[in-house]
Amino acid sequence: MNKDDELQRMKNLGKTSAQWLHAAGIHKAADLRRLGSIEAYQAVKKRGFRVSKTFLYSIEAALQGMGWKELLDEQKAALNRKLETPDGLRTATAEETAK
């Protein structure tokens, strides 16, 4: 792990995840918070990386400071719904997915 890489210091985000985010122009935790999990996931996917829903859950959980396996099924379902809607670029905030 690169200790200087702010993204790698976030829970759930390792070297590969951080590299994907960097390639999408997301370099700092503040960038990730500003975009939210949905938009960050889509930005990485648009760069051609084969990302799974687990990557989406990992980003959301990182923003909430928890492990991705700690996300409730309802939170995952809310993320999936937002990802599949026409306005999917709308960010999923921690408050929305915590409901």
Structure report:
The protein has a single domain, classed as Orthogonal Bundle (DNA polymerase, domain 1). 56% of the residues lie in helices and 0% in strands. The chain contains 5 helices and no strands. Helix 2 (29-46) packs antiparallel against helix 3.
Quick recap of the structure?
With 99 residues, the chain is an all-alpha fold.
Topology:
Elements: H1 15-23, H2 29-46, H3 53-64, H4 73-84, H5 94-97
Question: What keyword list fits this structure?
Answer:
disordered C terminus, DNA polymerase, domain 1, 0% strand, 56% helix, 99 residues, mainly alpha, 5 helices
**Uncertain regions: pLDDT < 50 for 5+ in a row?**
89-97
Our Rg estimate from Cα atoms comes to 12 Å
Record field, number of beta strands: 0
DSSP strand (E) fraction?
under 5%
Choose one word for the global shape: globular
CATH homolog superfamily: 5' to 3' exonuclease, C-terminal subdomain
The CATH architecture designation is: Orthogonal Bundle
- Average of per-residue pLDDT values: 88
What portion of residues is helical? Answer: 55-70%
Q: Which structural class should the secondary elements be placed in?
A: mainly alpha
Biggest sheet descriptor: none
> Can you tell me the CATH class?
Mainly Alpha
Give me the oligomer status: single chain
